[in-house]
């Protein structure tokens, strides 16, 4: 650690006002949450029907009878990953990984083509293995909750928090259960999941595709586990996240960067936004979709014009999953220091702002990654600053820009089957077709210089 002197100053009056208003809003939400929990089901259903009628009357929308609308309704009503897969004729397997730090992670596997079933579930198929990992506050359902199957990546292994809410040491109601950050994903979750997948499939290597925080976890894991690089033939990063510049909402961005631990005061030390699923279940889906849209515009300046409303209604119902408050605090620490660093336990009081850090937390040595890296990012994604990211990655990194794409567009955009999936398939075909001998000979050959288009 490099020690420095540091200057301290109190939060400004505007910051204090923001803190008070935030606490007031959270308190009001908590009260409403409790009231709703005690309301009889018929009363909740009445409010739901009235909100639906008022929405259609106010919006003046005609009844949508399109195929996309029908698919959207089926996806909206699907309860889990298995039901989402069955909509399009795929069968899945469920697996559980016990990590070295005692967490039980759920893995979903699609081992066969549409309409086919494997004779021996859990057995090796002899096919190349692709492991997909979702982003923050998400679960495996985000990969398959699309209104058209041509916009979903098939034959994948997916891990998700909704399916990983268990530990052999602590229950989910315990604060200790939620005491994890990106560091823990990197030290345990990613390497242990990859080891389990390779053992199950009897493959020598796999391809890793991450979205958002799923890319950050891989960047971190590959940087601190040199031998893990030998097991991943390519790392494809969709909407890559490493050191985001910040949020679009100035007051939230400034306040959280100044004192990331304020989040602990707002949300406690367990899961963040844990009441989201309750509100989602009682609010009419089109209204809920517009609420999410408004939040995304305010926080990230994402307007989601590349995603159809039917797709939003379908996908937003499967968007939220549980995540620790500590993980979000970790992200604000990264934003504050503009560096992809490990979690900083030596933090100052949340009511004090520091202009110069007392030391520099350890950074993930991402330039040491040997695995080939392909970045696919949108030029309208406020969380991606490609020049900063490339400066922290090895020279063999390839970056490809997706014009007019925002963050979530890469998952659910109406043209992902034209713009995103072909790029992913091309990278998979190239790197999976290389033999181990070829890999050994070309590891040190410099690839095309990454350029932001």
Automatic annotation (TrEMBL):
Keywords noted in UniProt: Hydrolase, Lipid degradation, Lipid metabolism, Membrane, Transmembrane, Transmembrane helix
GO CC annotation terms, alphabetical: membrane
Protein name: Partial AB-hydrolase lipase domain-containing protein
Gene3D superfamilies recorded: alpha/beta hydrolase (3.40.50.1820)
Compartments where found: Membrane
UniProt organism field: Cyclocybe aegerita (Black poplar mushroom)
Residues that span the membrane, as ranges: 16-39
Chief localisation class: membrane
């Amino acid at each position: 650690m490099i020690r420095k002197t540091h200057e301290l100053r109190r939060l400004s009056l505007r910051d204090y006002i923001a803190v008070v208003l935030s606490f007031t809003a959270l308190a009001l939400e908590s009260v409403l949450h409790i009231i709703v929990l005690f309301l009889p089901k018929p009363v909740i259903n009445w409010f739901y029907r009235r909100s639906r009628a008022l929405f259609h009357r106010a919006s003046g929308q005609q009844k949508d009878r399109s195929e996309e609308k029908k698919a959207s309704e089926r996806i909206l009503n699907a309860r889990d990953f298995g039901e989402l897969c069955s909509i399009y004729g795929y069968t899945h397997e469920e697996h559980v990984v016990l990590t070295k730090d005692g967490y039980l992670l759920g893995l979903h596997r699609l081992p066969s083509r549409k309409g086919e079933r494997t004779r021996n579930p859990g057995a090796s198929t002899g096919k190349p293995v692709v492991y997909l990992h979702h982003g923050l506050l998400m679960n495996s359902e985000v990969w398959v909750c699309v209104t058209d199957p041509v916009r979903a990546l098939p034959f994948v292994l997916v891990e998700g928090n909704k399916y990983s809410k268990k530990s052999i040491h602590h229950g989910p109601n315990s604060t200790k259960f939620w005491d994890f950050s990106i560091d823990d994903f990197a030290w345990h979750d990613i390497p242990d999941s990859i080891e389990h997948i390779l053992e199950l499939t009897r493959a020598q290597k796999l391809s890793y595709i991450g979205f958002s925080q799923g890319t950050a976890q891989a960047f971190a894991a590959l940087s601190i586990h040199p031998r893990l690089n030998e097991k991943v033939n390519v790392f494809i990063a969709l909407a890559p996240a490493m050191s985001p510049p910040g949020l679009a909402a100035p007051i939230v961005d400034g306040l959280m960067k100044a004192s990331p631990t304020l989040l602990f005061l707002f949300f406690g030390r367990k899961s963040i936004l844990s009441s989201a699923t309750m509100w989602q279940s009682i609010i009419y889906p089109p209204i809920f979709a517009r609420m999410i849209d408004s939040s995304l515009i305010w926080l990230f300046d994402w307007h989601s014009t590349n995603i159809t409303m039917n797709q939003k209604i379908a996908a937003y119902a499967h968007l939220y999953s549980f995540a620790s408050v500590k993980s979000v605090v970790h992200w604000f620490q990264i934003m504050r220091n503009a560096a992809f660093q490990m979690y900083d336990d030596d933090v100052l009081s949340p009511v004090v702002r520091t202009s110069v850090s007392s030391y520099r937390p350890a950074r993930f040595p991402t330039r040491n990654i040997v695995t080939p890296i392909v970045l696919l990012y949108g030029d309208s994604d406020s969380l991606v600053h490609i020049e900063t990211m490339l400066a922290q990655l090895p020279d063999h990194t390839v970056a490809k820009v997706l014009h007019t794409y925002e963050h979530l567009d890469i998952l659910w955009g109406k043209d992902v089957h034209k713009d995103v999936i072909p790029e992913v398939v091309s990278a998979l075909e190239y790197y999976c077709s290389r033999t181990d001998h070829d890999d050994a000979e070309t590891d040190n050959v410099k690839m095309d210089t990454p350029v932001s288009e």
